[in-house]
Structures are given as structure tokens and as C-alpha cells.
Design goal:
This protein is an alpha+beta fold. The chain has helices spanning 47-54, 68-77, 106-112, and strands at 8-12, 23-27. It has three helices and two strands; from the N terminus they run ββααα. The N and C termini lie far apart (35 Å). It is flat and about 45 Å long. 22% of the residues lie in helices and 9% in strands. It has a two-stranded antiparallel ribbon with strand order 1-2.
């Protein structure tokens, strides 16, 4: 497997009458190769992911770090991990650090849009 991941950002339209906006589903894997999913490789069986991909948007030119904390910080902030001090690996238990407080996070942007 490669050290980069394919980020699938799949926006699905909900079938319910009460839903005003589409659902947003992120499938994120830290160590996921391009050919490790059914819609790129018929030897891999991923029917549910393939169905979501066929009905949504696939973003596969997004690269991630080989470990979780830098990847998640980049997704949440929209910044490269080295710009916010998260490039060195996972945050340990009880480590007194985290994201800087001057960044607006993805959930805050989504909340502003009514999510």
C-alpha cells in the first residue's frame, strides 16, 4: 500500500422531504492505495462504497500524511500540517497540545451553511 490515501468526499442527496441540503460523507484512510478500492480495481469487492461513489463526487487528488493526527488536522483546518505544527506524528494521550485556536474548522464552516 502507498503512504498516501484517497480521500473520498461523497455528497449524497437525501431522499427525505425534511432534508434541505445534501448529506456529506467523508471516507478517509491514512494508508489507502489508489488501487485498493472496487471502482479502480475489480479484484477488490467494495459494493457499498462503489455505489456511493457512483452517486456522488470523488476527490482523489488529495494526499494525506501516513499517520492520523496530521491528516485529521489538515482535513479540519484546510492547512498543510507543517503550517500548524502538526507534521511530526500523532498526538499522544495526555499530551498538552492540539490545533491552534486561530483556525476556523470544517465543522464551523458547515454550521455556518446550516449543517
Amino acid at each position: 500500500m502507498s503512504c498516501h490515501a484517497t480521500l473520498l468526499c461523497i455528497s449524497l442527496h437525501a431522499a427525505g422531504v425534511f432534508c434541505q441540503q445534501p448529506n456529506i460523507v467523508f471516507l478517509l484512510a491514512d494508508d489507502f492505495g489508489y488501487n485498493d478500492i472496487g471502482y479502480h480495481n475489480p479484484d477488490i469487492i467494495t459494493p457499498n462504497i462503489d455505489l456511493m461513489a457512483s452517486q456522488g463526487v470523488i476527490l482523489e487528488q488529495s494526499y494525506v500524511q501516513p499517520v492520523c493526527s496530521p491528516t485529521r488536522s489538515a482535513l479540519l483546518t484546510g492547512s498543510y500540517p507543517f503550517r500548524i505544527g502538526r507534521q511530526n506524528g500523532p498526538i499522544s494521550d495526555n499530551q498538552p497540545t492540539g490545533l491552534t485556536l486561530d483556525k476556523t474548522l470544517l465543522p464551523e464552516y458547515l454550521q455556518d451553511k446550516g449543517y
